[in-house]
Amino acid sequence: MRRLEGRVAYVLGGGSDGPARPGEPLAMGNGRAIALRLAAEGACVVVGDKVLDRARLTVEHLDGEGLAVEVDAADPESCRAAVERARGLRGRLDVVVCNVGVSGREPLRAQSLDDWEFADAVNVRGHWVTAQAALEPMLQRGSGSFVFVGSTAGVRSSRRSLSYEATKAAQLAVMRHVAVRYAARGIRSNAVVLGNIDSALVRREFGSGGGDARGAIVPMRREGRPEEVAAAVAFLAGDDASYVTGHSLVVDGGVSAAWPSPPAPAPAPDPVPQRGEGTS
Prior knowledge:
This protein is of the alpha/beta class. It has helices at residues 30-40, 52-60, 76-90, 113-141, 162-182, 200-206, 211-216, 226-237; strands at residues 8-12, 44-49, 66-70, 95-98, 144-151, 187-194, 248-251. The chain has eight helices and seven strands. A seven-stranded parallel sheet has the order 3-2-1-4-5-6-7, with helices on both faces. The longest helix has 29 residues, at 113-141.
């Protein structure tokens, strides 16, 4: 299917930082899989990543024209500049996918200001600044689609990271605001809300050998694949979802639908707060 033929898509966080799956020639994260899928659907894809070589590697594997840009999601000026470069490729921008994100490992009692501010800068501010920079030309043309890559941590607590949970919830608020505020002017805004995905980032953060344990709590008894995330994003980005906006499409193998909820391991003891950090 070529549902995005002739359109330009920008994927923020389209590189891949982590190990490949066994036998996989190209390490596949959600952003890279999304970029490849949008290109296969006919889009000209601009890939943004903090490390330019990671973006270039994605572009090398695209089915069609693409552009790699260096962007630091924690830097608003870098976010704006990347959007301008994306628009400059063909003079338009039809689809923006905000995929970049950072995790944290601090519960409330040990939550540090540095960790909180960095998570907010990347997971929330970088996304709304990117959307803001892309919005005006879309409004002038009367069409545009945003897809935010969120997490079930934004709607359910894992008890693991306050900054991650709070910023992922705020990210969904940004998505809804764009959807409701600009729907009458041809702009759509949606999110995919991800559960356990066997992405390069997850393998880097939690190890490559824990997939069976991570999948055991999923009703489908496996982790999701980045390619399955990409398929959901491609649907929301294109005209098949023309009457869908403000929606959070859950891609979690049934975890959030289960009752009782799948068991989670007992939380580890809280880290000892460092001097100068608050405690609950």
